[in-house]
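Inverse folding, one chain.
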């Protein structure tokens, strides 16, 4: 079914071709192989969407395999966060949870087998010397003096490496391939290094750890993976992937490369993201300004919006940068359909309605979501003293200002038309309150057919709930932070604006963390998953309402 109807991309085409020729007997087994050395980011979401999505589409399965081959940088915190974030994105590995470390013993046996075939040797060169012997793109490499050790000597040394007889960095096991190969990855790549570090799963059982290239293809093979999909930078590693499998003579999956997802105004390198966290430039991996899935989630992004972006940008072979506006557009489209509307005043200013009786409260009906009639309505209390947005009053009014100013009329959303009669100022001359009268016949609609140009939102002062609202701008002030010599130098100093004195309508008092709303005229907001408490709401603005991307798309540019 899916095969006939879904739009194509080159990976789908390859899988269909394999299914047609019967290369893997019609099976589709993929894997997502994160290294647990940081949190997942939106680039990973792309890989997850491809790996799990293809398996789902073709009735196969996708494994989650932790590439836990570097104990010094990995941790259980990262493992837990990765699993949580993949599930949040809407994918599941079922019973197929694996670790490269599950295969350490098998990989070790295979390494001995390669030594036995004369295809691997123990080298005494230091990492620096190995690099120096490797040559360059234009100059061939030079063989290590250890390259022609006998099988027996290599086996003995390798066993003693495993037994912990040698210090870190003093020896490696290398594949014996071709020091003159035009592909530097084939110039006797390192298979094992000594690292006397405790591993989060295998403890102190090992002091030699396999390199990514040695672990990856063999792990794929053990698991019966059919399509090992990875990003473009592994294209030059594919000959090595193939060489190991062929040298061992074991089942051979197909590696396929696609272009990474890059996003404007942010970075994807886990090393640099970790630096932001460690230097306290953000509050953590899940800071709502981070491009991590945890950060996007906390900010208010939905898994649907992120999957939608993946689908829209497609799968390519050439590197590109997705504009942040495109991601925001996907979120607005999703939340416009689903998020209920509420009124929240971010920077409150008192509005006193002189002719509205003291002590009177009306419960006015407000539409929850004009895009979704099933969302129904709610009651919003209205009374004599309201809060309106500071911005919605100006004295004097600039040209074309259709909100409140002395003598001007405006509609209060879901309520009455009011006319500004004056202002109260404090000793310093600042506006302390706005005064107005209301037209009792104008409730809900425009009863007498009078036109007022502006409509503003409000909350009843006596009923409003105090809230903290956090507004965000991009974490970096330039579209391509990676091009800066030091990404820290292009951080946006105004990326966070905390409004501690916001007033929100009572319906927002007890909403659960992570619930999302459109605050009328202000954007889409999400109750913060860390700091939000019933009765003490904290909201993050996920995105504003103005959608520049929609225009580009309509014009055919998106
Ligand atoms: P590092 O920055 O440490 O090299 P990484 O981002 O490659 O790490 P991994 O944990 O090795 O992180 O990535 C897991 C998988 O996600 C890999 O298959 C990788 O190709 C893929 N991936 C990583 N970044 C992106 C990206 N920006 N776009 C698409 N896929 C990505
Ligand atoms: Mg990687």
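Residues assigned per position:
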């Amino acid at each position: 079914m899916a095969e006939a109807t879904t739009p194509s991309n080159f990976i789908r085409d390859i899988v269909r071709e394999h299914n047609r020729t019967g290369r893997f007997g019609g099976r589709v087994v993929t894997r997502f192989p994160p290294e647990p050395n940081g949190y997942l980011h939106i680039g990973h979401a792309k890989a997850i969407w491809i790996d799990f999505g293809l398996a789902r589409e073709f009735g196969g399965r996708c494994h989650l395999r932790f590439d836990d081959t570097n104990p010094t940088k990995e941790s259980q915190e990262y493992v837990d966060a990765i699993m949580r974030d993949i599930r949040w994105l809407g994918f599941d590995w079922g019973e197929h949870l694996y670790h490269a470390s599950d295969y350490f013993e098998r990989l070790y046996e295979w390494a001995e087998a390669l030594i036995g075939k004369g295809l691997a040797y123990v080298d005494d060169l230091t990492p620096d010397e190995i690099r120096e012997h490797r040559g360059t793109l234009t100059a061939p490499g030079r063989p290590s003096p250890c390259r022609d050790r006998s099988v027996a000597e290599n086996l003995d040394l390798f066993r003693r490496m495993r037994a912990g007889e040698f210090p870190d960095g003093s020896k490696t096991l290398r594949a014996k391939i071709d020091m003159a190969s035009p592909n530097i990855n084939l110039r006797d790549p390192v298979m094992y290094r000594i690292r006397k570090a405790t591993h989060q799963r295998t403890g102190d059982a090992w002091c030699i750890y396999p390199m990514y290239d040695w672990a990856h293809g063999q792990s794929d093979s053990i698991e019966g993976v059919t399509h090992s999909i990875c990003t473009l930078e592994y294209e030059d590693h594919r000959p090595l992937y193939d060489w190991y499998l062929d040298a061992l003579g074991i089942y051979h999956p197909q590696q396929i490369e696609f272009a990474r997802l890059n996003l404007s105004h942010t970075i994807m390198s886990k090393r640099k993201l970790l630096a932001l966290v460690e230097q306290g430039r953000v509050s953590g991996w899940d800071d709502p300004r981070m491009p991590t899935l945890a950060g996007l989630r906390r900010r208010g992004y939905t898994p649907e919006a992120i999957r939608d972006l993946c689908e829209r940008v497609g799968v390519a072979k050439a590197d590109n940068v997705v504009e942040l506006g495109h991601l925001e557009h996907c979120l607005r489209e999703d939340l416009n359909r689903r998020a209920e509307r509420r009124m929240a005043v971010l920077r409150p200013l008192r509005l006193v309605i002189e002719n509205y009786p003291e002590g009177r409260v009306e419960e006015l009906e407000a539409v929850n979501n004009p895009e979704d009639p099933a969302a129904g309505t709610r009651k919003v209390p209205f009374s004599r003293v309201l809060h309106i947005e500071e911005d919605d009053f100006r004295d004097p009014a600039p040209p074309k200002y259709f909100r409140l100013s002395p003598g001007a009329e405006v509609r209060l959303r879901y309520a009455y038309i009011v006319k500004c009669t004056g202002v109260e100022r404090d000793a310093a001359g600042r506006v302390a309150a706005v005064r107005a009268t209301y037209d009792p016949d104008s409730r809900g609609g425009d009863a007498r057919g009078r036109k007022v140009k502006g409509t503003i939102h409000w909350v009843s002062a006596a009923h409003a709930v105090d809230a903290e609202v956090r507004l965000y701008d991009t974490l970096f002030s330039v579209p391509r932070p990676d091009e800066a010599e030091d990404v820290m130098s292009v951080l946006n100093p105004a990326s966070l604006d905390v409004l501690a004195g916001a007033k929100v309508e009572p319906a927002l008092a007890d909403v659960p963390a992570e619930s999302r709303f459109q605050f009328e005229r202000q954007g889409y907001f999400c109750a913060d998953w860390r700091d939000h408490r019933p009765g003490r709401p904290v909201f993050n603005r996920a995105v504003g309402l103005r959608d520049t991307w929609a225009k580009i798309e309509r014009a055919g540019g998106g």
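The CA atoms of residues 337 and 371 lie 6 Å apart. Residues 344-457 form a domain with the Ribosomal Protein L25; Chain P fold (CATH 2.40.240.10).
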